[in-house]
Amino acid sequence: MASLKEIRTRISSVKTTRQVTSAMKMVSAAKLKKAQNAILQIRPYADKLHDILASLSASLENSEESVYTRQRAPEKVLIVLISSNRGLCGAFNSNIAKTAYELASSKYARQFNSGQLDFFTVGKQGQKYLKSRKIPVSDQADEILDSLTYDNCSNLATNLMNDFVSGKYDRIELVYNQFKNAAVQICTKEQFLPVEISEEDDMSAKNSNFIYEPSKEQIVEELIPKSLKVQIFKALLDSNAAEHGARMTAMHKATDNATDLIHDLTLTFNKARQAAITNAILEVTNGAEALNG
Amino acid sequence: MFLEIITPSKKVFSGEITLIKLPGTKGSFEILNNHAPIISTLEEGKIKIIETNEQISFFDVPGGVVEAKNNKIIVLAESA
């Protein structure tokens, strides 16, 4: 059995760890609240934008192809992997990195093997995972996670859109954690470009005679980039909220484990202490016996 | 008529109004009650609204889009 001193040191070190994990849990809980609010704010905007775009494209007869909707054979593919900059959030990062890797090695196996597939990472952890598998990362935008604003995200989206329009990539996929609740994240794969406009048969949009200013085509032309920017922004916000949720859950479990460990260690410590006392008493009585005898 | 002004970061305005003046791409225009359905893109400029209690407010927008249908107006601005 370990000595009393050893156990005491162990208990105090576990206690320190518990303090750290429970503090991290509190911090994540506060940040999660903020991140959740941010998503709730963006949703009405994204939904409305999508509605307008859907009703517009439904009323466009044999839709004039925009540069963003043009389908090309996917010769060069880019996968945008959104993870987090910091670790200690359970399986958050490894799950999403695995999803991206699977996407690359199944759907785009041909491009992946011939080196026609690039990875773009947002978040250091995803990059680390790919590097450990010797997969090169063509570009990254980790700093965007430190200040998650619409302007920063729209710059990122503009860069991606330019890469698509210039023909550098024929297809761009987004891989990120979607926030469901604090404990559950959904690994999501979304095609970012080319845009797939849902051909909903919205009769109400066709019948209501909208006035379009300046013209239907021009509005669509302007709205598509906007909705792409919002899509990136939403994905990043989702991932951010999911990260804090995952970290909160992970830290909650760690705190619970530390508490259990302290309980067990205290029991062991008390047992060892009692044994030591019993031994001491035995020695004293034995000594007394020896003197009397 | 009911107006909502929404940006990606928050809902800026929501309420009943009697008039809204918008910086449309084809020129500035106003929407009053019972306006025909319209979708228009917006340029950088000022949005002026008059609420039902006759209070006048202004919003600066860098661009966006407006949809008005059945006396329900939605302005999507990039910021305000």
Key phrases:
heterodimer; A: about 290 residues; alpha/beta; Helix Hairpins; Pyruvate Kinase, Chain: A, domain 1; 2 domains; five-stranded mixed beta sheet; 6 strands; B: about 80 residues; mainly beta; ATP Synthase, domain 1; eight-stranded mixed beta sheet; 8 strands; about 0% helix; globular
Describe this structure in words.
The complex is a heterodimer of chains A (293) and B (80). Chain A has two domains: 4-24 and 251-281, ATP synthase, gamma subunit, helix hairpin domain (Helix Hairpins); 31-250, ATP synthase, F1 complex, gamma subunit (Pyruvate Kinase, Chain: A, domain 1). Helix content of chain A is 62%, strand content 13%. Chain A has seven helices and six strands; from the N terminus they run αβααβαβαββαβα. Chain A has a five-stranded mixed sheet with strand order 3-2-1-4-5. In chain A, helix 1 runs antiparallel to helix 7 (216-292), helix 2 (92-106) crosses helix 4 (124-132) and helix 5 crosses helix 7 (216-292). Chain B has 80 residues and is mainly beta. Chain B has one domain: F0F1 ATP synthase delta/epsilon subunit, N-terminal (ATP Synthase, domain 1, Sandwich). Chain B is built from no helices and eight strands. In chain B, strands 1, 2, 3, 4, 5, 6, 7 and 8 form an eight-stranded mixed sheet that branches. Chain B is globular, with a radius of gyration of 11 Å. The model of chain B has no long low-confidence stretch (mean pLDDT 91). Chain A binds chain B through residues 38, 41-42, 44-45, 48-49, 52, 56, 149-150, 208-214, 218-219, 222-223, 226, 230, 233, and chain B through 6-11, 24-26, 29, 36-41, 65, 67, 69, 74, 76, 78-79.
